[in-house]
Every structure is written in C-alpha cells, then in structure tokens.
C-alpha cells in the first residue's frame, strides 16, 4: 500500500476504491475509542483492507481525562496516535475526518470535507456526546469533559479561576470565582469534583497570597438521590462520605433548572458558581440518522445479539452508540469495557466470516468490575464478589489504569507524574494555554481603569 | 501574607497597597522569563515585597519550545508555574495579567483588567515579540513560536498537514500541504526546520498509506547569506551541510516579499507552501511606550550599565526589551543567557541597595557559549575556545538543557521522552487538539459532496 503515490487519481471519488483484479474486503471503522480500536486491532491481522476514521488523530484514554482537567497529567500522556498503533499493518489505513453521513446503497461513508470512503462492511463505534437536556445554550456555560481539547479548556478555566480570584477586590466576585459546580454525580462527575477539591486543598494551598484556595467550594449536583448510583449502596455511601470529608458539598435530588452567568439553580436552590462543569446526560453520535434507522432513547441504535444492525449483517454498531440488552434484562451500561469487548467480538466475528468459519456465539458482556476515584488516594471498586474502598481500591485503580494505557511510553510518563504528585502533591501540568474567562472576568471589574 | 482574607477592601485600587506602620519596599517585576525569574529568585531572599506579573501562569523554557511544535515534548514538560516557584517565599506574590501601561508619577503598573499594582522599584523584563516587518496580515499566515499556545498551534498545523495530504486527490494540493517554509535561519528557524525534516523522515515515515511523509519539502529562507549567522563561519557551514543532508532546502540571500494562501515569494522565487512559520524579526514589548521614553531600533530601551533607565534609578529594563553595549562595542545579543545574567545582576543590585551596601560593578555579560540543534542527534556548539559539531555537540546540548530546566519533575519527564524518542524515533506528543487548517483545507476540495 505504501507505494501508492499521492498523485494517483482515484475513481468514484472514494479514496479507497479498489482497482484491478484483487478485491480485498473493505472494512470501514468509524471511531477509534475503546470499541473501534479493539475491532481494528483484531482485523489488522486479517486480509481485509481496513480503514479507521476518527475526528481526531489519536485514541484517547478517557478514564484519565479528568486528571488532565485538574492539571495532573498532560493530554498527550493519555493519547496514542491512531496511525502509529497500526504502523506495522499496511492493510490498515487511518483517516482523520468527521463523518457526516452514510450512503448505504452506494456503500460509502461521507466526510465533512467531501471525501468519500467505500466499504463492504461498516463498523460504527463513534460513541456518545454530551447533551444538555435540550438546552444547547448551556453547553458553553457548562462545558463537558469528552475530548482532549475539552480537558485543556477545563484546565484553563479551573486554573484561571484561582488566578482571577487572587486579583479580586470584590469579595462576592472572588467567592463566585472560587465556586465550582459539577452537574452529574456519576463516575465522571465524582472523579472531577473530588479532584478539584484535592487540587484546591493540597497543590494550590500555599501558592496564593490573598485568597485561600482551600476555601474553594466544590458542589456536586445530581437529580438522583445518590452519588455513583450504578454502584452498590454501601460503596455509594462510602463515596458520599469520603467526598464530604474532602470538602465536596453534595446537592442531591436536585435537578438543574437554570445555568446562567451567575451559576446554577438546582432543585430550586441557587448556587453562585463562576465555574460550572457538565457530567450529566449523554446521547449517541448521530448514527441512527446516518443509517436512516429509527433511534431509541438518547439516539441509541438497537442492535442484534451479534452487534449487527437488524436486517443488515454488513453493518455493526457498538459501544455507547448502540443499545443491547444484557443477561439481567437491562440495557448494557455505556462503559468503555462494554465497547472494548464488543469491538473485539465484532473483529473476531468478521475475521471468522472472512475465512469462512462459523460465527461466534452471541455477544455476552463480562462485567470485570467498576472503579471510581474519590480524590486523595481513595477510590471505590466493585468486582461483584470483592468490593474495596479507600486506599486498597485506589491502589487497584492505579495499577489497572496504568496497565490499560495503550503505549509503554504513556505508562512511563503517567507513572513518573503520579509518583511525583504522590511525593510532592505537585501537579505536573499547571499550564494555562488560553485565558477563557477574560470576558466573563472583566464583568467583575465594574470600573476598569481607562486604557 | 496568607492571612489576608480576600474580602478586605484595598485602598487606592492597588492590590498591593501597604497599610499601617510597616512599609516594606515594593518591587514589581513584569515578565517571568529568564530575566524576571532570575531577579525574583534573588529578591525572594530579601525583605522586599515582590510582585511578579506575567501574561501567563508559567515560566516557559523557550529553548525547547520547538520540540513542543514537532510533538516531541508536551508544553507542560517545559513549563513551571510561577506561583509554585515562590511557594516558600510569602514576600513574593504572583499576578497573572497583561500590562497595559505604567504610571510613573503615581508609581503604578496598570493591567488590562483594571487592576493597578503599586511599586517603589520596577523591573521590566517582558522580553520581545515577533514582528512581521510591517505586515501584520502575515502573522496569521506565518505564525511564530513564542508561547506555549503558539507551540500547540504549530503542532496542530504540522500534524494536520500530513493528515489532510493523505486524503488529497489533487496532487498539487497534496504537494503544497507537504511543503513547510520556515522564514528566518537563526537558531529558532534552524532548529524548527531540522526538527520538521526529522519528524517527516523518521517518526511519520511508515505511518501513512498514500503519501510518503519523507517527501515533504522543508525550505529554510533567510535574507542573509548564511544560516546561524551569529556563529563562526565553519560552524555555520557545518550546519548548512548537515541541514541539507537531512533534506532541508536552504533558500538564502532571499528576503520574503509576499506571504499568501499559496505560500511565499522570497528573493523573487515562489515557494508553494501550505505551511509557513515565522522565525525572523522580533521587537521589544512596548516598554518604551509604557515608560514614556524614546524607543531605539526594534523598540529597544537603552539602559545604563547597571540596567537602570537613564535618569531613573528605580526603574530597570533588562533582557530582550533593553539595549546595552557589550565589551566588544556591539549591542548584547537577544539571548536567554543575557536576560538571566542581567536579572540576577539587578536582583543583587537591589538586595545591596535595600541593605545599604555598595552597588555592584557595572553589568558585564559572560558569554557561556551558543548552541543550536540541527535534527538527528546533531548540533553545533560554540564555547569560544572549544567548538563542537555533530554528536558531541548534541550530547552537550542535551545535558545543558536538561540541567537548565527549572524543575526536577520537568527534567525527569523530558528525559523519559528523549530516551523514548532516541530508542524508537517515537514522538510522545502527537496530538492534534484543534484542526486549524480545516477552512483552508476545504478549498482543496473543489467539489465537496452535498451534505
């Protein structure tokens, strides 16, 4: 493949059109998260011509993304270039592009820039995006944590809030700047809130002269009555207790009514917060629209027990964009572990299909357990038969996440940073790249000096 | 200082106004680069009340910034938070803000957000900015490499160029995307051009399927006849030879006439380049305007042999913003080493002044040598009596830069990344955060598919 010169005019507008006699099977994978990567890795060892499409150039290890937002890790230390993952597999091509549609009749995937990519088999593993409960205007006020760019934005906002508060002469404005409201008390919200509290009470504690960073308010809101609702009751209770000890205020059973310049209103109570972060509702990427099929709740596409689209065995949807019922009769959760297992399953299914072997048994999710950190070397872990809290859970969490990181280089760099943080409470990535709150901040200076 | 609650109303609008009987001497340092940091470190050990103002929250180790642009290092691994550098010194305050003026009569520094900061002694170490020879419209087309955000922008552009070229069906457009023109053949331009060539010929070489990254053109332009003109002739010649071996085209004695969407025209020759980077002219930050004094060439402020402003011994200007004549009768070069030595000198001078001791002798620059890397484990080093080229120079360069990094944590992380790159040719930070060329790229698709 590497000897195809760029100047070759390709027929049909499709960049991977096949000419001449050899007709390898073309598999296109949309999305290179946990699911897409697992499928592509399996299929790289087949004869198929595989094309992996992603909006970015990297696979992102999302479970550690909150650590980028709180300046503990740099974004690249949890990212792996998709291309380099398939360097040794000339049958795998990588495309950085944004999918805008699928032409099922012509077997083409359309990208935003006009590129069209032909397929014989299509795997849609494009995951989910955050949704703001029908309030698109909340998105800018309450950014969510999904991409590397999101994490840098949150980091800029969190670090800038302390910098701006230090210069405030209006005490109300300073208090508002030092209030962080996190909406959604699932694992992402819990980990983010705990980490912000830890940041303010340890790393930043002695670095300011006029404000006391440890006085920062961190408020975790949820419409439901419990944090980590998917965990067993006693782990959920432990997490709530531990978060309170860290200084996180829990505001539960309170749905968000309003998000505005002054903060949020949740369950009728106003919380004056200069910083609001969103970790609540998600919805599927517009896979149903691309395919022209009916979308279920939150845009999910219902799939067969082998992850294929009902009525079309050459199209697969997996991970957060799909809906499949588990053995307990409930839908499988939107977890990286589900996507990863489904990706490996579909890869195996297609490898068998290509070599004429019998298909595998229907997909079955193996629940390997759930983990969430709470800040301050504490976590909760639920492995079904074993349930851990506190430091033991945190040690397991650290080890598992180091092992799950895609590249050895990332493991080394994350390990150095964690050891450093553990020894010094230091955060290795305290860099503000842009000043996101400048405009908002100026409002706190009613009488700026003439320029 | 830490017990000052944020709600205290401060008189005079100045955040560091001093109340009551104790009147410590207030020293304000603008800019926390090599010069400002050196001055602040010395003054932290005095009784003075020191305020360090910087546009960002971090000191940036600029000599390694080009490595961020070519995805070898993450931005935070060469950045140190200004605050944490002075954690143990309660007499040092840090302010993140942009200076817009100085009121010399009222002894106030004004910030963009309206904050005013009072001083008894002022040290201006705000450095230089790039200037585009009176063509402000070139700035966006040919971004320069000065801040961490700049480096991320360049990285996004460089990595995106290869991604977009891979999808091109128009061979001319693909060739243009894979042409990188660097304007200015001083150390920054040479290091950047060499590093882009190395990136395309090693790290990326086997990662693409339709383009050959090694075919990328890297063109280094300069109005002068030599690269690294400040180095002795034989080092300059060596650098030129080595760059050519790496695949860098040298286009010397050719001033830039035009920069447009298609590339540049230099010395009458058009170079079709999808990526143009600026490493040519710089000018001082507007220090002369702030002070109301006459600016010399490139906005530089002429200073006394002790770095003070003529006629005002309480104001100092140092580093890239100042002009001082060296022992050889020529102006001191705009180097980090000059700024660092001047910063330490002014810090010492003020420490003596505060304790009633005699002033030091006039500032004298100790030239410790010059270094520049050329890509591919090669460099040139000029220590006056010893001149090195190739691998020995590169080993010296690596050791010196590791030692000069501000924090131990940064040294560890940079070392891990360098070892990794050396063993694998891998680049640790191949992350595209934003897609900067989307708009430009779309122009290369004359007939995009309907959406």
TrEMBL record, chains A, B:
Residues 368-423 form the External alternative NADH-ubiquinone oxidoreductase-like C-terminal domain. Its EC number is 1.6.5.9. InterPro entries: FAD/NAD-bd_sf, FAD/NAD-binding_dom, NDH-2, NDH2-like_C. It catalyses: a quinone + NADH + H(+) = a quinol + NAD(+). It comes from Rhizosaccharibacter radicis. Residues 26-343 form the FAD/NAD(P)-binding domain. This is NADH:ubiquinone reductase (non-electrogenic). Keywords: FAD, Flavoprotein, NAD, Oxidoreductase, Transit peptide. Belongs to the NADH dehydrogenase family. The keyword Endoplasmic reticulum does not apply.
């Amino acid at each position: 493949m590497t000897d195809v010169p760029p100047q070759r005019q390709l027929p049909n507008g499709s960049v991977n059109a096949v000419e001449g006699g050899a007709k390898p099977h073309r598999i296109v994978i949309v999305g290179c998260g946990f699911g897409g990567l697992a499928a592509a890795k399996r299929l790289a060892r087949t004869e198929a011509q595989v094309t992996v499409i992603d909006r970015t150039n990297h696979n992102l290890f999302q479970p550690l993304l909150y650590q980028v937002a709180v300046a503990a890790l740099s974004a690249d230390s949890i990212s792996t270039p998709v291309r380099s993952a398939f360097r040794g597999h000339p049958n795998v091509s990588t495309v950085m592009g944004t999918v805008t549609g699928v032409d099922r009749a012509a077997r083409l995937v359309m990208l935003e820039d006009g590129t069209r990519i032909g397929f014989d088999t299509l795997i849609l593993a494009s995951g989910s995006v955050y949704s703001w409960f029908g309030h698109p205007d909340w998105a800018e006020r309450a950014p969510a944590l999904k991409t590397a760019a999101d994490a840098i934005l949150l980091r800029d906002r969190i670090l800038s809030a302390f910098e701006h508060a230090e210069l405030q002469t209006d005490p109300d404005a300073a208090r508002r700047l030092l209030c962080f409201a996190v909406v959604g008390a699932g694992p992402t919200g819990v980990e983010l809130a705990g980490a912000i509290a830890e940041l303010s009470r340890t790393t930043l504690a002695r670095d300011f002269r006029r404000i006391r960073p440890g006085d920062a308010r961190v408020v975790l809101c949820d419409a439901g009555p419990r944090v980590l609702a998917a965990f067993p009751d006693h782990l959920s209770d432990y997490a709530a207790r531990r978060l309170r000890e860290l200084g996180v205020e829990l505001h539960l059973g309170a749905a968000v009514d309003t998000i505005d310049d002054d903060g949020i209103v949740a369950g009728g109570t106003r919380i004056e917060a200069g910083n609001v972060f969103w970790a609540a509702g998600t919805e599927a990427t517009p896979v149903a629209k691309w395919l022209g099929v009916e979308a279920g709740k939150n845009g999910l596409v219902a799939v067969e027990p082998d992850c294929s689209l009902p009525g079309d065995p050459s199209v697969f949807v997996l991970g957060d964009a799909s809906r499949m019922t588990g053995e307990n009769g409930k839908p499988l959760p939107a977890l990286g572990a589900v996507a990863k297992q489904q990706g490996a399953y579909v890869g195996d299914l297609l490898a068998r299909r290509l070599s004429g072997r019998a298909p595998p048994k229907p997909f079955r999710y193996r629940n390997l357990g759930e983990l969430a950190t709470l800040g301050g070397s504490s976590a909760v872990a639920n492995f079904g038969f074993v349930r851990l809290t506190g430091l033991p859970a945190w040690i397991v969490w650290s080890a598992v996440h180091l092992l799950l990181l895609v590249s050895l280089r990332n493991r080394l760099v994350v390990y150095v940073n964690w050891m450093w943080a553990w020894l010094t409470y230091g955060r290795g990535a305290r860099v503000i790249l842009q000043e996101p709150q400048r405009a908002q901040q100026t409002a706190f200076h009613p009488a700026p000096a003439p320029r």
